[in-house]
Amino acid sequence: MALHAPVLVMKDSMKRESGAKVHQANIQAAKAVADIIRTTLGPRSMLKMLLDAAGGIVVTNDGNAILREIDIAHPAAKSMIELSRTQDEEVGDGTTSVIVLAGEMLHVAQAFIDKNYHPTVICRAYTKALDDAIAVLDKIAMSVDVNDRMAMLGLVKSSIGTKFTGQFGDLIADLAIDATTTAGVDLGQGMREVDIKKYIKVEKVPGGQLEDSTVLKGVMINKDVVAPGKMRRKIVNPRIILLDSPIEYKKGENQTNAELMKEEDWQVLLEMEEEYIKNLCAQILKFKPDLVITEKGLSDLAIHYLSKAGVSAIRRLRKTDNNRIAKACGAVIVNRPEELQESDVGTGAGLFEVKKIGDEFFAFIVDCKDPKACTVLLRGASKDVLNEVERNLQDAMSVARNILKNPKLLPGGGATELTVSATLKQKSSSVEGVEKWPYEAAALAFEAIPRTLAQNCGLNVIRTMTQLQGKHANGENAWVGLDGRSGDIVDMKERKIWDSYSVKAQTFKTAIEAACMLLRIDDIVSGIKKKQAPGASAPKQPQIETEGDADNEQMIPE
After folding, report:
1. What is the pTM (predicted TM-score) of this model?
2. Mutual orientation of helices 383-405 and 171-183 as an angle, nearest 10°?
3. Is 52 known to be catalytic?
4. pLDDT tens, position by position, for the chain (558 residues)?
5. How far apart are CA 225 and CA 310, in angstroms?
6. What CATH architecture does domain 218-252+266-370 belong to?
7. Which of 60, 88, 93, 95 is catalytic?
8. Can you tell me the distance from the alpha carbon of 516 to that of 83, in angstroms, rounded to the nearest whole number?
9. Which CATH superfamily is domain 15-143+410-520 in?
10. Cα separation of 415 and 491, whole Å?
11. Distance CA 160, CA 341 (A)
12. Which phi and psi angles does 310 have, rounded to 5°?
């Protein structure tokens, strides 16, 4: 027993040492990712110029857009990048904050890892800190009336004030609020659901000025009528039929052979095709439509019958666009023309018009009575500017959606984080056992956000942070924070610098849960096969143990 015990102890210490090295490597990787986008936090932040895979240039300060283009091999760093994407999909904003906060949480945990604290102890303290932080958010949150346009405008403006389009004032905030209120659906109990991806389409058309951008009360599609000379390009109060089936003769599923014995049979075959299309068109024309839109093909003969009846037609439309038109004008997408009913015809649109913008034709179905889908038309000098404006608009729409879903506000400018930090510092004295120190470290980590804001404003960080901590001592002055533009320490209510409750709560949860996950990793095992160098000998076949080998093994005495 005495012979083997030291060996076992040595193995255990080696295991611990390898775990500590993995923790250090993970923390360093996470800090490296956080340092990349740290300078893009706040209204006076820096921009990053990225070269994407296709060789194009992207200029942005959006955390998710930057990290999306970065190619990193370290698995912990990849995990950090996923955080930003998750945050963007869930709430659409706070993509930079979540990375900075997660990086800081891991940074303060490094001291405890070096002192041989068990990662589970640190994670327990962090989870407790997260619960207390969310309780603080609930306490200082302020309700907002979603019907008060000025309050909504102020909130969206302060959320996108850190972005490139912040310089254009109310423009993007107005577009975002108009779009989300148009496409919102009442869920009852004062709550609204907005499906930004499905029912709000952003159409970018280079040319003109950014001020020409607008939210259409309807839908715009990059299509022209199929026979421009014969079909009307402008119809007031159109009756619209939407189809999900082709108006042409059915082709065989696979290769089809038809054997014709007489010459007249060929004529009969053609007449059958014509008769089939004529019947299809007759079933459609029975409802006196002004516009027929189909996702599939439209044969020349069908075009002839429709144009003869004075009906305009558009073919090969995207499924998503067709869904938006249905929501905007109140039509129902029909799979078979035989099953058409009067209730399927859309009569909610006020105007159908085809316009030429630049070199392309666009069809507008606008002035709808009660549209539940809309198109945001963006104009701008170049594609790069339009792409950045679109990214900012998506964030603004997400913020507006979050407020409609959960109408609660929190102070911006780092005030929320400072209040949470001060409250957790007070509570740390009541935490028992070794968890007290990691809990207190988590409280300090929240100060990373205001500290980074102060750095990006070019202020004296130590002096500014000392003043802010003094104001927030004992958890008082919850609404005092840092104005990122002027660098003043002011009341956030006066400057109307606000944050959405949903964004802040999601940021805290994502950052702390991710930090806990990375801390609990004690080994990284690669499943990727290394490429064999040319001329190298083939790898040895694994040896299979037999019963005899097992008997010959030396057993460690108990």
Report:
1. 0.76
2. 50
3. no
4. 343 433 333 334 444 456 678 888 888 988 999 998 899 888 877 888 888 777 778 788 888 888 888 888 888 888 888 888 888 888 888 888 999 999 999 999 999 998 889 999 999 999 999 999 999 999 999 888 878 888 788 778 877 776 766 667 678 888 888 898 888 877 666 667 788 888 899 999 888 888 888 999 999 999 999 998 889 999 999 999 999 999 888 776 677 787 888 888 888 888 888 899 999 999 999 999 999 999 998 999 999 999 999 999 999 999 999 999 999 999 999 998 888 999 999 999 999 999 998 888 999 999 998 888 999 999 888 888 888 888 888 888 888 888 888 888 888 888 999 999 999 999 998 888 899 999 999 999 999 999 999 998 888 999 999 998 888 886 677 888 888 778 888 888 888 888 889 889 999 999 999 999 999 988 878 777 666 556 555 555 555 555 545 444 444 444
5. 12
6. 3-Layer(bba) Sandwich (3.50)
7. 95
8. 13
9. GroEL-like equatorial domain (1.10.560.10)
10. 9
11. 46
12. 75, 25
Q: Decide if 170 is catalytic.
A: no
SS (H, E, C) 220-251: EECCCCCCCCCCCCEEECCCEEEECCCECCCC
The active-site residue, picked from 40, 60, 96, 182, is 96
Secondary structure letter of residue 343 according to DSSP: G
Q: What is the DSSP string of 486-529?
A: T--EEEHHHHT-EEEHHHHHHHHHHHHHHHHHHHT-------PP
Fill in the amino acid letter for 284.
Answer: I
Q: Token pair of 343, please?
A: 């209730």
CA distances 38 to 28, 82, 163, 399, 441, Å, are: 15, 17, 14, 22, 20
Residue 53 is given by DSSP the state T
Q: How many residues does the chain have?
A: 558
Tokens of 448: 């990373």
> Which candidate in 88, 178, 395, 499 is catalytic?
395
Tokens of 226: 């199929």
| Range list for CATH 3.50.7.10 in the chain | 218-252+266-370
Element holding 20 (H helix, E strand): helix 5-37
Sequence ranges of the chain with CATH classification 1.10.560.10? 15-143+410-520
Query: Rounded distance, CA 156 to CA 3, Å?
Result: 70
96 is catalytic: yes
Three-state SS at 216: strand
